Amino acid sequence: MSEDGKERTVELRYEGGSHPLPLLTGTEGDEAFEVKTLLAATGKVTLDPGFANTAACQSKITYIDGEAGILRYRGYPIQELAAGSSFLEVCYLLIHGELPAPGELKEFSEQLRANAELPAEMRTMLDALPRNGHPMTLLASAVNTLAAFYADTTDPHDTEQVERATILLLAKLPTIAARIYRNSINEAPVAPDESLDYVENFLRMTFGELSGEAELDALFVKAMDLLLILHADHEQNCSTATVRVVGSSQADLYGSVSAGINALFGPLHGGANQAVLEMLEEIRQLNGDVDSFIAKVKDKESKTRLMGFGHRVYKNFDPRSREIKGLASEILARQERPDELFELALRLENKALADSYFTDRKLYPNVDFYSGVIYRAMGFPTTMFTVLFALGRLPGWIAHWREQRLDPAARIARPRQLYVGPAQRSYPGQA
Ligand code: CMC
Predict the structure, then answer these.
(1) What spacing in Å lies between the alpha carbon of 364 and ligand 1's midpoint?
(2) Neighbouring residues of 279: CB distance < 8 A, sequence distance ≥ 6
């Protein structure tokens, strides 16, 4: 709408006609041509591989300005949330739209503590899954089965069931993830401890009794909490878009989130944090030859990417990567010897940012570039890195699924295509 309340439109002209398209404006001044009447009015569709120019919904959850490097959850800058909030507060904020009052946060936290344990059959099931399977595959499978264990919380039309599913999913994901990890190293699982808060409980279920000096443990808890906050939402990224697409068919929350976990697993998405560490290891094997690696990345024939660099939306520094780099320095400074992979990452970043291949394409470090070196310092194996991303992204997935559920404009996701295959032809022998 313009200031005088009139609908603003742009005229789309094409050979043989024209069609007015409403021009919509978001809170921060972003604009969108609304094309929902296009096919019916013109018989034509838009073609947009990777949806790079397509807004699939209107959303009130997260704002990103990729050119300016801005990220806000529900209006709050990520830097302020990182400095002042806990992950649980951020979960509540994303899901319910406002920061919790102290009483609300207490109740939320108590509900999560009380529901962290898994049903006995689920524990048996998890213990029977292949122990050398990738934790992301196992996590997605386990989350999907929550719909069977809690079938009375799967109706997307029933608000009470949705509230219950929200709590169950948030409460149980850390327990599932920790059990998958303990199984992978053939260690006995550690049951959740209701006296601990969300992040402490997860670290304890993962590593058992936390070893080392108390101060170091506190830093790890703080680091984990911060990393989860920084990963908690990122508007319509691949996995969140997947959760929405699956949810748009009115599939239950567990199945939608399970699909999101599988989308996150891909190396171009959340799997990049594992891929970054593997890349750094590869460079270390090459005696730390950063120049040769950068040359390989620039050679398109090699199909090698600088993992942890580039972003569909950020054409500037990813604000999350700055926070994570600072955290990595803080954590690694405590180690007796300098961390070789962190040093390599710093050299790689400097080299790339001084190279026109990367600057011309606006490729900067993203959230995954430094997170892996922190997870490694905390003792997580690389295969668990993307699981940690999933733990952080869970409230975002839930918030989007819930927002779509209540959106009167939401419809089943069903994109169109431009068919370019063979024209009609006869089956051999039928002509
Ligand atoms: N290394 C080398 N070249 C790159 C990279 C990279 N990491 N990223 C993009 N490019 C080049 C790409 O080859 C292309 O060059 P040209 O124009 O000469 O063909 C140009 O930059 C544009 O790339 P694109 O693939 O069209 O960009 P996209 O928006 O489709 O892809 C991306 C975004 C994140 C998938 C991509 O930058 C990438 O593959 N990065 C490495 C993987 C990674 O770190 N992923 C984590 C993303 S952040 C966490 C998350 O949200 O999941």
Answers:
(1) 10
(2) 293, 306, 307, 308
Rounded to the nearest whole angstrom, what is the distance from the C-alpha of residue 312 to the centroid of ligand 1? 7
CA distances from 224 to 217, 219, 328, 374, 381 (A): 10, 9, 11, 9, 15
Q: Would you say the CB of residue 352 lies under 6 angstroms from ligand 1?
A: no
**Half-sphere CA count of 199, side-chain side, radius 13 A:** 21
Which residues face 71 on adjacent strands? Answer: 64
Single pTM value for the model: 0.93
pLDDT higher than threshold 80 for residue 1: no
pLDDT in tens, 315-373: 888 899 888 988 888 888 888 888 899 999 999 999 999 999 999 999 999 988 999 98
Ligand 1 pocket, residue 296 CB under 6 Å: no
Question: Residue 188 Cα, ligand 1 centroid: separation in angstroms?
Answer: 40
Q: Does the beta carbon of 44 sit less than 6 angstroms from any atom of ligand 1?
A: no
Q: DSSP string of 380-403?
A: --GGGHHHHHHHHHHHHHHHHHHH
